[in-house]
Amino acid sequence: MTQLPDPRSLLQLDRLIHEPARLLILSILAGAESAEFAFVEHLSGLSKGNLSSHLSKLEAAGLVAIDKSFRGKRPLTTLQLTPAGRQGLAQYRKQLAAVVAGIPDPHSTDS
Amino acid sequence: MPQPSVSDPYSRIQAVTREYSRYSRSAGGLSAIAGGIACLASFLAGALLPATIELRATLIAVPVLWLVAKQWLAHRYYQRFGQVEEQITATERNFQRLFIAFTALISALIVGFVLTRMAPMGRLPWDLRAIGYLMVVALLPLIVWRWLRTPLEFIVGVFLLCQAAVAFAGQTYAFGPTTVVFPLAAIALVVVGWRDHRRFIRLQTEMRALVAARKPMP
Q1: Residue A59 is inside which H or E element, if any?
Q2: How far, in Å, CA of A4 to CA of A19, rounded?
Q3: Which residue of B5, B14, B215 is in closest CB contact with A28?
Q4: Would you call B84 and A96 a contact, using CB atoms and an 8 Å cutoff?
Q5: Tell me, what's the ipTM?
Q6: How high is the pLDDT of residue A53?
Q7: Which residue has the higher pLDDT, B80 or A89?
Q8: Tens of pLDDT along B138-163?
């Protein structure tokens, strides 16, 4: 028996992670133990202000840890995905895959 | 034809970060090449040349120079896009713990043996040569913990340090069936380093293309 797609599955996605820029930040951080702010800025293409704003939201949600220190006289901001962030991203990925699997292919000729 | 998943670009960017962090630690393979060459040179010089004071001083300096160069390359030259620390997998962590435990055990046994049997290379335990030897042996686990992550790095690094330790005592390693593993590991490390370096150059090109192709995000 074919199961009908549940429209609520899309609503269950974590909106905080679903935002493209934040998803990009989390994806970058998921590939490392920690990364310098400049690296994430460079790879994401986000401006400093936008990146800071998104990071504040992710930090407030406990998904990212931000450490501010100095390397010599230069300020150094190090970003790290928390265990909750890693788990949240994995959960999001699983949910999104389930949603995508339920969307019909418009080019398919199967009836 | 397999359809791309919506998460593919994000997975790729995660993979790029992972590769970048891995190559940054090994300075894009250059520190491995330098370690391999240093190991080969140290072994051949120790085995073929007379153990003069100049040669012994050089053999003692080689591991220090390698570790300093390794650190400098990783932080100043190869992390141009920003510093990224590598995520260690559970297997790598277990291997490293094994290396550290093994080195710590051997180090403790050697230091204990030398101290209880009155520094065999000098009349007194505070003989400068004995102190140098013991210091290098005692530092081994610390250096393994901080700098030597892969099996090849471990073999090469430990050899360079052991060569430095015995150089303090006026000796060097000679050719033999047990020491042949060191030049072989050195050659293997150079090959691995060269392969990593080529991959790192490709990764840098990909990163530049990735950044250049992206429109600024809101």
Answers
A1: helix A48-60
A2: 27
A3: B14
A4: no
A5: 0.80
A6: 95
A7: A89
A8: 999 999 998 888 888 899 999 999 99
